[in-house]
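An instance follows:
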Amino acid sequence: MTSLAITGTSRGIGLELVRQLLDFPKDQVSKIFAITRSHLDEPLQRLIDGSHGRIENIVIEDFCSALQVQKAANQIQESLHGRGLDILVNNAGIMPASAGKIESVTGDQMLGVFGTNVVGAHMITSNFLPLLRAGAKKLAVNVSTAMGSIAYAPRYTFAPAHAYKISKAAMNMLNAQYALQYAEEGFTFVAISPGWIKTDLGSQYADLEVATGVTSVRDIILKADTSMNGKFVNIRVSGWEEAEGANQYNGAEIPW
């Protein structure tokens, strides 16, 4: 019986991940804590209403607020009735477009992106560690992107998202630091690139339908073990392993 907490579940990857996990029987996926920033959008509310209590909404308006994040952790602890949390998925993220070259990105824009994509992920992870420590899997998943790979930077010069790319490179290092420092306790920290998916963030021009990309993300999450600790992995999608262009979805590790 696996319990999960997932951020950024009001739409896109997070919403689809909740939907797919709910398809598993209760003896495999027992509880999903769907974390949102504000009021529930209708699609998530419908899932909650039909979940027979398996999905619980947790609201954190500001991921950088230690008070709010700790309050959310306390809510989850109370709801689990003494059991630990098995899996945390840091999925929430923002990707504002930036016209022009890197010099055009303002300090406020950079800070805003880092607040959500890096500081927010750190605050959630650090405050949820006691819950994960008491769980069976002790797994934390950070949803990253191949655009956060420094080695792959030349591939993505066409994408006008400077602050996003930089923040995801930082998230990858955040994942690495947690992986190194908590390996002895049996934790697994893994960064996943979910591919270019047709969400509000990814746009209609993306490679993959939401369900297709998220299915691979879901499978990686449910199969992850300590052998994956500290890794940065790609999804696998049949027919995309050797695709032309910037993106291939081959299930391999992505270079830093």
